[in-house]
Design the sequence.
């Protein structure tokens, strides 16, 4: 098992809203307890699965403060604090730390399509502004640009608090380079539930998971099974939840997973625009899978 600080099963936590689109703090507290009981290692509020682009700075602070208070040091709170304007990303990072975050998840600058040097400078400013560990979030399918392995490695070597990378790609060449050339303190985490088994088998440290919102103990079991070399058990778990991993992206994340959690009785099914509910056809597909897994 890895001794790196940021490892294991991390949940990219949804943000529960009430019908008036305000933060449902009661549901939020229940979600934190759900993850403590399931043995989730890291809880990540206010990430992109938490609809971070629609949250104000005050809401980000309140969500992180609530999660930290409920977690009561039983689980690491690594809060989402990223955006595509560097100065604003620094503000969000400071805000998250002030609210009680023990680490930060900072998404790569999206839409701007900066050069690798621009990406380096973006994270340099964040790393110099806070002292807590920072997770670089590389998700080219959403941001429009890839944070190269060389840039990630350069940042990790230059800044001790660049502590992890969330690789939400299936770029095995890049993943291999990161795993083989990283400094000792850098955790390499997958952002793809469907990649947990091969990723950790290659030497990865864990996952930042969407499916952990629904099945946290099972995702934790999968991570541990691979780390401990119990590949038959890992394949069995992966086979059972493979379809759920895929269905969570049948429409834009986090719409499917929030729908599932609503069906499971954990939150109300509310989103902030521009996200809207799933189609009736896709709801039926998700219902069938949730029923087959005994979740509803």
Sequence:
């Amino acid at each position: 098992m890895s001794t790196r600080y940021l490892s294991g099963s991390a949940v990219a936590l949804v943000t529960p809203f009430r019908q008036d689109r305000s933060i449902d703090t009661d549901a939020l507290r229940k979600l934190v307890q759900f993850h403590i009981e399931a043995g989730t290692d890291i809880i990540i509020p206010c990430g992109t699965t938490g609809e971070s682009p629609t949250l104000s700075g005050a809401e980000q602070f309140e969500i992180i403060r609530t999660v930290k208070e409920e977690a009561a040091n039983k689980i690491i709170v690594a809060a989402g604090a990223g955006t595509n304007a560097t100065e604003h990303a620094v503000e969000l990072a400071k805000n998250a730390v002030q609210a009680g975050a023990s680490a930060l998840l900072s998404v790569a600058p999206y839409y701007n399509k900066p050069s690798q040097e621009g990406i380096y400078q973006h994270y340099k400013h964040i790393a110099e502004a806070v002292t807590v560990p920072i997770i670089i979030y590389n998700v080219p399918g959403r941001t429009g640009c890839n944070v190269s392995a060389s840039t990630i490695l350069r940042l990790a070597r230059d800044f001790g608090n660049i502590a992890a990378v969330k690789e939400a790609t299936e770029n095995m060449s890049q993943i291999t380079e990161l795993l083989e050339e990283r400094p000792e303190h850098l955790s390499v985490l997958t952002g793809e539930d469907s990649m947990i088994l091969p990723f950790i088998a290659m030497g990865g440290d864990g996952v930042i998971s969407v499916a952990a919102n629904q099945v946290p103990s099972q995702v934790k079991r999968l991570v541990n099974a691979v780390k401990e070399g119990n590949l038959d058990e890992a394949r069995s778990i992966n086979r059972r939840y493979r379809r759920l991993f895929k269905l969570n992206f049948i429409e834009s994340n986090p719409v499917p997973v929030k729908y599932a959690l609503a069906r499971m009785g954990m939150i109300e099914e509310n989103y902030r625009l521009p996200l809207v509910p799933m189609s009736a056809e896709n709801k039926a597909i998700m219902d069938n899978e949730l029923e087959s897994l005994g979740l509803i």
Remarks:
- The chain has one domain: 8-228.
- The two ends are 34 Å apart (CA to CA).
